[in-house]
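Late entry, written up from scratch paper. The run itself happened at the end of the previous shift, but nothing got recorded in the book at the time, so transcribing now.
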Amino acid sequence: MSRNRRGRNVTSPRPNATVRSPPPPAPPNAASGVEVRQPVALNGVRPTSITCDWCAQPTIVKPRGRVPRWCSETCRHRSWEQGRAAASGRSAIQIVERLVQAPAPPAPEQPSPTPIDWPETLGALAAQLDSGRIYDRDLVTLSKALSNVFAAYERHPGVRRQR
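Output as recorded:
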């Protein structure tokens, strides 16, 4: 073993060892329809901006380091999820996010009391008035409504005959 300039041990290659080059990258799988794109410098010139492989937004390339393929960690992770789903045989779907405005459902209508229900309803109103469960502030509007009801009752032809 020999030492480098920093004083660390360095192993020298074995004399009989053969140097292997890394295997060439596998071609994209045409059956899966997944396009593999490597962002490399064209003609030795480093690009100043790229298009994100996931969201297709333009991204500025830093002057040093690897040329990015994605604009953010979110896009990188989504791309990884899609590739993993395609590799496992599951169908990789395209996620489309959009805002959908649905009209609010109409408020359910209170069923109006039938003629059989009115005596019970008016009796419950009288019990609430006697027990003080109706606020004083509501008595004015309640008296106007009861006056209108009583006037309509007096106008009814069946009531006139009973007198």
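The chain has a mean pLDDT of 78.
(Scratch paper discarded after transcription.)
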